[in-house]
């Protein structure tokens, strides 16, 4: 199991989230979906002209992560444009922090941190890490208790079988 995905910082959720070829009904179109983080990476690097390092700093991800996100988004957009497909931007509010402006990214919180009441410092762990560890500890304790109960039942069954063998009537001698 991989580690939980960290929140990605984006300037704002776009008002328009679907782009399609003109004159073709949506019901007849194939489409691709790019994540909000992919859209933000495309916007920062290709539309705003920022370097990958500057864009990665704004999104608060590493440069290799930004490069991977950007490559996936560019591939999806190129596929859709070359085949005449629709492009949909998936707004994943669980993993994207929107703060309305690009300039003020002091202490925004992701939707996940608002759900669990925590928050996370930049570069820190997800707000659910503590809850996940507690849940794992509870699951391990329940599993250990279930094993102990199963062992006790098995021991009682073995004891009952031994007692039943000793209570049997002796076989008649021939």
Short description:
The protein has 174 residues and is mainly alpha-helical. It has helices at residues 36-47, 52-59, 63-83, 111-116, 129-167; strands at residues 8-10, 18-19, 31-35, 86-90, 96-98.
Task: Describe the overall structure.
It is a single chain. The protein is mostly helical and about 170 residues long. It folds into 2 domains: about 120 residues, no CATH class; about 40 residues. It has 5 helices and 5 strands, in the order βββαααββαα. A 3-stranded mixed beta sheet has the order 2-4-3. A two-stranded parallel sheet has the order 1-5. About 15% of the residues have low confidence.
| Radius of gyration from CA coordinates | 29 Å
- Cα end-to-end separation: 67 Å
Anisotropy-based shape: elongated
Largest sheet: 3 strands, mixed
The strand line-up of the biggest sheet is: 2-4-3
Output the number of helix runs: 5
Low-pLDDT runs? 102-108, 113-127
Classification by helices and strands: mainly alpha
Average pLDDT metric: 76
Number of strands: 5
Estimate what percentage of residues fall within beta strands: 5-15%
Estimate nothing, just give the exact number of structural domains.
2
Summarize the amount of helix as a percent range: 40-55%
Secondary-structure element string: EEEHHHEEHH
């Amino acid at each position: 199991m991989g580690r939980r995905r960290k929140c990605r910082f984006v300037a704002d959720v776009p008002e328009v989230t679907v782009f399609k070829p003109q004159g073709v009904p949506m019901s007849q179109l194939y489409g691709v979906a790019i994540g909000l983080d992919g859209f933000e990476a495309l916007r920062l690097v290709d539309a705003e002209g920022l370097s990958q390092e500057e864009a990665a700093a704004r999104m608060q991800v590493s440069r290799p992560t930004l490069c991977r996100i950007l490559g996936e988004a560019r591939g999806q957009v190129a596929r859709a444009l070359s085949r005449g497909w629709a492009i949909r931007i998936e707004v994943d509010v669980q993993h994207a922090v929107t703060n309305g402006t690009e300039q003020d990214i002091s202490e925004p919180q992701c939707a996940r941190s608002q759900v669990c009441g925590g928050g996370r410092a930049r570069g820190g762990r997800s707000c659910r890490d503590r809850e996940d560890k507690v849940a794992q500890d509870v699951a391990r304790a329940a599993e250990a208790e279930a094993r102990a109960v199963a062992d006790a039942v098995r021991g009682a069954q073995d004891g009952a079988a031994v007692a039943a063998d000793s209570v049997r009537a002796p076989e008649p001698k021939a």
